[in-house]
Structure formats: C-alpha cells, structure tokens
Specification:
Elements lengths: L9 E4 L5 H12 L3 E6 L2 H13 L3 E6 L5 H11 L4 E4 L14 H29 L2 E6 L12 H21 L4 E8 L5 H7 L18 H12 L10 E4 L10
Parallel strand pairs: 1-2, 1-4, 2-3, 4-5, 5-6, 6-7
Helix pairs in contact: 1-7, 3-4, 4-5
C-alpha cells in the first residue's frame, strides 16, 4: 500500500466483526494502520482478516467477551502496543425499564461503559509514555435524546460521554487525544435484525430523511485517528443527520 495517514500505527477496534466496527476496521486498514480486530465470533474475525489482507492491508484477530472484565484485560494484553483504540463494540437492547432486569442493565454497563474504561486504563498510559495516541469511542444519540424505551442503553452511552471528557483532561497533556463519535440511527445488521419490518422508521428521525451508513461513521473515526484532527480533544461529535424532535409542535 502507498503511504497513508496511519501508516506505521496499530489500531485496536472492538466490535470489529459487524456493523460500525467492521466499517471502521476496514477504513483504518485502508489508511495504513495494522488493525487488531476484536469480536466474539472467530470465524467472522478470521474472514475479515483475510478480506483486509486481500485488499493490501494488515490485520489480526483476538476473540474476547467484553462483558467479562478479565477477558477485556486479556484483550488489551494480547493487542500489545496500540496507537489507536476504537471502542466500537456495543449492546443495544431497547426495552422499557420495568422489562429490563438487573442482568440486562449490567450487560449494557459492562460492554458499553466498563469495557472502554478498562481498555483505556490498560492502554492509554503506555500511549502517554510514548507521547502520542488516540482513543475514539462510538457513543449514541440515545445519550442525549430520551425515548420511551432504552433507558439502560442511553445511560451506558451517557457514561461514555463523561468519561471522554475526563480522559481528555487526564491524558491530553501527554499527547493522547480522546474523542467520542455519537451516531444517530445507523443501518447495520443489528438494527435491521432488531427492527425487522419497522426498519423504515430509521429514515424518519432526522433532517437528512435517512438512516446513516456504517461507512459514514467510519470516515469520521478515520479523520479523528489521523493528523488532520490534531486539535480535537474531549469532543463529542454528533453524526445524526440533523436529528429532529419527535415531540409535536
């Protein structure tokens, strides 16, 4: 591959075997990064490794369950020296509060909030010691736009936003930048499976009149990972097509 903005860097992308994470992993590889792919399905992970290699990139796969704290820390250890951490893995089950049990709530917090926290704690100090690094987390518009269902998801993503601001302050002086990309509805395998025949509803919630595509979020992540965004730190970048209120009037 020819010289690219991320050549010589290593990126760990969680949730890389589907949806936004997959699009991010492919885009960072195109930009020259060696990508450590995380997921739970080894077959899908190895297939993506092969796909990236055939396109001229470099990747390897590490399986881990981010709902398990020890497995999350093992992932950080096996990833090795990382320059870019992209927290793209996520749980999103939209149920009313009374229908969300303790295990369901805990899983949202474990995967969406605790796993990024543990990975940053394990990897960012080494980035700081080298004087450079990027942490990018995929948030959600659910953190700022309440709905009648999905409180557990919204709470877990709101946690990521405040962590981003804390981490930007904690590590910013050492050359590590920390930002969050906050998408609105995005058409992924997960959202299609969850909504089924109601998938068209995703196209009714913003000024663009359509849901986002994973590649569009991946382009923003690639920008934040590269040198062109060198003065962006502690930001929550909204990528929601101009989300509009569902309230009357």
């Amino acid at each position: 591959m020819s010289a690219t903005p991320l050549e010589g860097s290593t990126a760990l992308v969680t949730g890389a075997t589907s949806g936004i994470g997959r699009a991010v992993a492919r885009r960072l590889a195109e930009q020259g990064a060696e990508v450590v792919l995380h997921g739970r399905d080894r077959a899908r992970g190895e297939a993506l490794v092969k796909e990236i290699a055939e396109a001229g990139g470099s990747a390897r796969f590490v399986a881990a369950d981010l709902a398990d704290a020890e497995d999350t820390l093992r992932l950080a250890s096996e990833a090795g020296e990382v320059d870019i951490l992209v927290n793209a893995a996520g749980v999103y089950v939209f149920t009313p509060t009374a229908q969300t049990d303790a295990a369901g709530f805990d899983r949202h917090i474990a995967v969406n909030t605790r796993a990024p926290f543990l990975l940053v704690g394990a990897l960012a100090p080494a980035m700081a010691g080298r004087g450079h690094g990027m942490v990018i987390t995929i948030g959600s518009s659910a953190a700022r736009t309440p709905a009648a269902i999905g409180a557990a998801h919204g709470a877990s993503k709101a946690g990521v936003e405040i962590l981003t601001r804390y981490w930007a302050t904690e590590f910013g002086g050492s050359g590590v930048r920390v930002n969050t990309v906050s998408p609105g509805p995005v058409r992924t395998e997960g959202t299609v499976a969850m909504l089924g025949d109601h998938i068209a509803a995703l196209d009714q919630v913003n000024a663009r009149g359509r849901a986002g595509e994973p590649r569009e979020i991946a382009e923003i992540v690639a920008f934040l990972a590269g040198p062109a965004s060198s003065y962006i730190n502690g930001a929550i970048l909204f990528a929601d097509g101009g989300e509009v209120s569902t309230l009357p009037g």
